[in-house]
Each structure stands twice: as structure tokens, then as C-alpha cells.
Amino acid sequence: MSTVNSVDLHYDAIVVGLGKTGLSCFRYLSNQGLSVAITDSRETPPELSKLQEEFESAPTYLGQINEKALLASDQIILSPGISLDHKSIKLSIENNIPVFGDIELFCQEAKAPIIAISGSNGKSTVTTMVAEMTRSAGLKTYVGGNIGTPALDLLDDTIPDLYVLELSSFQLETTFSLNAHASVVLNISPDHMDRYSSFHEYADAKKRIYLGQGFMVVNKDEEYFHSVIDDNREIIYFTLTTPEEGNYGLIINDKEVWLSHGSNKIINKNQLKIRGEHNVSNALAAMALAETVDVPKDVMTGVLKEFVGLAHRCQLIKVINDVTWYNDSKATNVESCIASIKGLSELGDIILIAGGDSKEADLSCLRAIIEKYVKKVFLLGIDASKLASFIGPDIEKKFVKNMNEAVAEAGKIASSGDIVLLSPACSSLDMYTNYQQRGDAFISAVNALSNNV
Predict the structure, then answer these.
(1) Please, are residues 387 and 354 in contact by the beta-carbon 8 Å criterion?
(2) Which residue range(s) make up the domain with 388?
(3) Domain C-terminal end among 259, 276, 306
(4) Res 6: pLDDT
């Protein structure tokens, strides 16, 4: 392993960023016999030790993104966390050096159909639903991308029947060859406004998932949907209203709500174990995607009846003295928090734990929903005061230093039938490594609370 200070070599490729994705890119390119370097702004990036174990002599440039190393390379593979607007990346583009990401490499090599899923909220849930549906139908399905396994690590000697990829806006920015068998943008709401110059720019990145000629699965309830329609493509719509024939939505029969395909009832809403309108929408999207690979309706319903959701996504933790505790740490933006509050509001009064790094998002939309459904808010993190100002003076609120204090204080005021919900509306990076660690902190505090009851 060599940490290089000066650049005196030419490289076939350089990888920018040494996280899970960056390591997968380095591994993939090295295994193709290319001379590859890697650079990262951090002195000790998270996958450095693994790189050292696998590639003892890998040339690395750490502590800053090394501009000279970029300019000494034929191509740049950019990890999703690094912006195309970084000054060294912009200079490289000006010098006509191709810049792309791991998903572009994957798309150039993949030999099986791809189902591609993006959206501000719900993409991990839908990706998992589709994977379970297709596997239950007997298809050999590989899953990865922005969830679990990096996409390039899915490429092995065995070609599956299907790839199901969760794709972020960051990944889509540097993808040009995607021609998915079926693709969807579940929804678009303001997120990552610290990265994008405008909501329009963020939305355009999401819409890149519809590159190619495959099935377009489109959320008819979203304002954006008109802007992606291609009359030359086969389109399947989903909606929380009554669907047109051939599309997915909801119909009411004998005062009961059914998820349906056109006028054909598929599954009663009450049979879903996941809660909230946003999860009903997710289920409809998953069925529309699964239809494109001929998954039978009975297989779809079998999966939906058993699907309990993912960890840290409106996850039921436990009931203590008739107070129910939900972990929704994955709610890293406003719309996700709103969806969780709406989805759980029918079950009881809500005590909300929120806050973190707002990523410069507009938090004003939270006020109306909190006024309607939330009895008290506990605020923590770097933007707690900002969140408090948007919520307004009429909402009872309290600032707390950490998750343990938030849970303890919520436990003191919760009454029988109440719901305590961690749904931060902000990212976790001001206090935690990721949203999973934040959710785990919440779970630990709730478990400690129950042990003292």
C-alpha cells in the first residue's frame, strides 16, 4: 500500500472517494487489469483498511482530492458523495477527462434486465418489496446500488434473471447509459438542498432514471409527472385515487379500501402490515414494477401480506404501558416526516422527536401537520432552533441534548394510547455516523426505558 504525495505516474482511471462505493469501483477496475489510483479528502476514509488488505500497493492520495492525480488519469470515477461542482472535478471536466460513477460502469457491463428505483422517500422499501416479489416468483434477483451491496459487486460470473437497483440522485448525476427494463421516480420533494442549486436541479437528477426505452412507472399524484411523459414509451401509472384500466390505485368497495389494478381488486388495505398512505403508494409502485416482469398477482399479495417494513423506517419498536414507540430515523427530510405523522395519526396522539442537520431545506411545511397531529415536540441537533422557529410558538416543545434525554422526557409525559415517534426531518450527520446509528440510539434508549418500568 502506498500513500503518494507527488504525482509522477499516468493512470488508466482514478476513483474519487474511498467509501463502500469507491472501494467497489477500485476493485472492479483493478480486476480488469487497469492501473488505478484513488483519492479522498479524508486522511483516513472509512474503507482504507479494506483497501490495504486487498491491494497492498494501491496508489492513494489522501487528505485532499488530488488535482494533479486527476489530471494524470484517463477517466475519473466519482463516488456519489462528491459533487460534480467540486473545483478539481470541474477542472478535470474542462480538460476533457470523462467523469462518471459506479452505476454507469455497471450499466455498461450488466447482462440482465434492470429495475431501477428512485425517489426522495420510499425507495429502499420499494426496492425490497420488488426483490421479494420477484424472488417469490422464482426469479434469481440481485439487489443493490444505494441499498446494501454496491452495484459493481453484483457483477460476478453468474448472470441473474434480474437486477433491482435503488438509485440516488447523486448516482444518477453521473449515469448516462441506463436503459432499465422498468424504472420509477416514486416522489420528489426538497432534499439535499445543500448540494443542489435549486429544487429543479435536484428533480432533473432524479428524472434521469427514465433514460432509455423501458417501462416508465409514474406516480400520477406527483406534480412532476407531466414532465416525464414520453408518448413513445409504455407507461404504468399508480395513484392513491381511482385508477384507469391497466394502472394501479385504490377503489372503495362496501366502505373498504382495496389496492387495485384498474377495476380488479388485489389486496385489502387492512391486510397490509405497513402503515400510512405513503406505504400504500409504495405497495402500488412495487406491484406496477413487478408486473413488468410477469410476477403473478397472488405472489404480489403474498409478499405484501407479510411485509413488515424496513428497520428505521416507521419501525414499531415496542409498546410500554400502552404507549407505542416508533423509530423512523430514515425520515431525513420534511416530506418523509410528514408522511410518517399522517400515517400514524389515526392510531393515537403523537409525541415527536425531531431535529438534526436540515441540509438547508425549507422546514415550514411541518408547521401545519404538527399543529394538527402532534401534542409535543422534543428537539435536538444542530438545527433544533431553526426547526423550532418554523414550527412556531403555538406548539409545545422542548430542547434536549441527546437521544437518551429525548426518550426519557417523552416517556414522562406520554399517556395511554399515545405514540412516541422519532421522525427527525433532518439528516443525522451532525450527531451520528448515519441514520442507522441514530435509530439504534433511539432503540437502545427505549429498551432502557422499558427495563426501568
Answers:
(1) yes
(2) 315-451
(3) 306
(4) 57
